[in-house]
Amino acid sequence: MSVLVNKDSKVIVQGFTGSEGTFHARQMIDYGTNIVGGVTPGKGGQTHLGRPVFNTVKEAVEATGADTSIIFVPPAFAADAIKEAAEAGIKVIVAITEGIPVADMVKAKDYVTRYGARLVGPNCPGVITPGEAKVGIMPGFVFKKGRIGLVSKSGTLTYEAADQIAKEGLGISTAIGIGGDPIIGTTTKEAVEMFMNDPDTDAIVMIGEIGGNLEAEAAKYIKEAGNKKPVIAFIAGQTAPKGRTMGHAGAIVGGKDDTAQAKMEILRKHGVHVVESPAEIGKKVKEVLSGKS
Fold first, then answer.
1. Is domain 11-120 annotated with CATH 3.40.190.10?
2. In sequence order, what are the residues at sequence separation of 6 or more whose Cβ sits closer than 8 angstroms to the Cβ of residue 217?
3. What global pTM score does this model have?
4. How confident is the model at residue 292 (pLDDT cuts 50, 70, 90)?
């Protein structure tokens, strides 16, 4: 069992023939991801990267049995692409696009929920189950297969944590980059819950940042679930000035509970192992798993 994607996932690329879609689809194919086709309106019937191109997601699903989609569509049209995938029966939708208008995302998220799909992102690096499937833009070589679940708001810190975990002789079961926008599909809590219920995951690394209450919700769930698997957390933005957006559209300190210090305190109170620096993530995971922490 794996979380969200695996070697059996049948993946289509929305925005397949564009420059971004082409570049990353090629990387995913090279990684071994089962890319079964792509969608570019007006280019149906063509072949691209040795895969069929369809005009609509519905046609792609009917022809290929696709269950997963990754979206490389410009911000103005990306919310419609998300809705189209959900309506066509896609179960896992990964939206890479950055800068989707918040009002559009509110509607798209509601749509995804109504159709029973799972949205990851937008403005995220995607999902990878090492050695099986990469549905995203992350550098695949960094991720070694193992039993640590990784959920992160930050793309670069996802890669950093995966690299450190590998250097400690451990590996990743699945890594989920949830994205840093104000409105996202899968929350930190939902990702942690999936890992808690995954028999192939022994511990969870959670990378958060200032702004919002995603980490506090996750902490509450972790404690209520009985802390059944160890969780190691890092919160980015410890020196961020109040009231200023930092990097991500969702990373803005609104109240006293939004600061990195407040989040770290909440996590500690709920039994989470918190590290002060991203450089400590790998070592702390090793310590916790060997019972030294």
1. no
2. 187, 188, 189
3. 0.95
4. confident
